Amino acid sequence: MRTLLRGGRVIDPGTGFDGIADVLVSDGVVTAVASGLAAPPDCTVVDAAGLVVGPGFVDLHSHVHSIAGQRLQAMDGVTTALDLEAGLMPIAQAYADAAAAGRPLHYGFSASWAAARAQVLAGIEPDASIASGLAVLGNPAWQRSSSARELADWLSLVDGELAGGALGIGVLLGYAPATDPGEFLAVARLAAEAGVPTFTHVRELVEVDPATPADGSEEIAIAAAETGAAMHHCHVNSTSGHHVDRVLGALDRARRSGSRVTVEAYPYGAGSTAVGASFLDPDRLRMKGLSPSSVVMLETGERVGDAARLRYLRAADPGAPCILEFLDEENPCDLAMLHQALVFPDAIVASDAMPVFWPDGSNDSTEWPLPPGGMTHPRTAGTFSRTLRRMVRETEAWTWPEAFRRCSYLPARVLDEVAPRARAKGHLGVGADADIVVIDPDAVTDTATYFEPTRPSVGVRHLFVGGVPVVSAGDIRADALPGKPLRGEPR
Questions:
Q1: Which of 131, 101, 72 has the alpha carbon at shortest distance from 483?
Q2: 271: helix, coil or strand?
């Protein structure tokens, strides 16, 4: 299959090229980038005049494990969607299930720290599904510290998952915030020895919980410095809240001292999780300066009225998905904090995309457009388009080359060591994977809202995954399921 993208503004963050050119794709690979390329025989020509052509977005933090959810992400410019913060277990089943169902986008998973701990500490057998993962998050049985034997046992499980192709270790530390900090150091040592990154939802900040065993963001910097591990700080905006200035300062000092710490953020003031998560306890919400009314149940739209109601919901169905409003996007000061996380040097854009659920309990659909009534977080459909609108067009904080560097190039580089095949992603050099997005720079924007979260973004005119068109002329190609696994290859 050959495709010639003719006359677009081509941006390659790998080489710094930014100019009008043609891009030739042959058999899933970029084979030429130059002006005035002749179309080979049997080649599809796409007119890209007036459009921006760049490497597809690499999302390091997507909990979408379905065709329906990945189609929303495709309309947002994503070509590779990876679940690295939480991961799935068993890793072999996760990859097999995705391959059997087919995926529009490339996919991959980390080794799940939470699932390994839950198996050893609570006897919960994992089944590599998002529903199982959400149920585990609300179960307190695995959230205690481990004995020496237990620690060795679940570290062995994680190590086995790395050998099976996991893309690093996903650490949901914020869901077990009272655990011994020595366990986190042990995970970092394992990661350093295996040559894989960690992806951490950090525990509470000391400003929120003075009794925390370790300050969340200081802890990740210390672990990186002590072990030499490559450590990724997930959604720094949501875990830092009003303390983002202090947190970013600590991370900047760590990086300047040589620690391998990377950072991600998304452009929303509300997160999404299971209602049983430890940090949604009414007392912990109060410590954050929040209240039960900051919690909205995803499946019903209920805004929780008081602490008694929240406790009831947490006990009745701890795995039920909900939204937590941690910043007020209508407040200029809070909006500035979101902006600050995104402009932080080398901050990566990552969505934390959530599954799509329908009222009948289903969490996938092969229909397009999606059936009505689907619920998720709007970041599933809109993270990248919303970021481009705000950061490039409205505030001009980023140029287009900088946008592709943060959405495509930098996230792919996080994976270079663990997955050598990632080196062909995030750029448009000859030999790069033909994962390409073509954007209308004047029209790209999100349309999903908290109340209509499955409305797809607009402005992505074409999207190619391995050279196969998944979005054409601004809409999904319903027959396209070209996604391939990205697997780890630890040393």
A1: 101
A2: strand
How far is the C-alpha of 427 from the C-alpha of 271, rounded, in Å?
Answer: 30
| Architecture of domain 2-55+425-476 in this structure | Roll (2.30)
Global pTM exceeds 0.70: yes
* Residue 485, CA distances (Å) to 53, 62, 137, 462, 482 in order: 24, 14, 26, 22, 10
| Banded pLDDT at 128 (limits 50, 70, 90) | confident
Pairing outcome for strands 17-26 and 2-12:
antiparallel
Length of the chain: 491
Q: Detail the DSSP E strand segments found in 172-220.
A: 198-200
Q: What are phi and psi of 224, to 5 degrees?
A: -65, -40
Print burial letters for 66-102: b (CB count within 10 Å at least 16), e (below 16): bbbbbbbbbbbbbbbbbbbbbbbbbbeebbeebeeee
DSSP state of 294: G
User: Is residue 134 pLDDT above 80, yes or no?
Assistant: no
Q: Would the pLDDT of 409 be above 80?
A: yes
Give the architecture (CATH level 2) of 57-421.
Answer: Alpha-Beta Barrel (3.20)
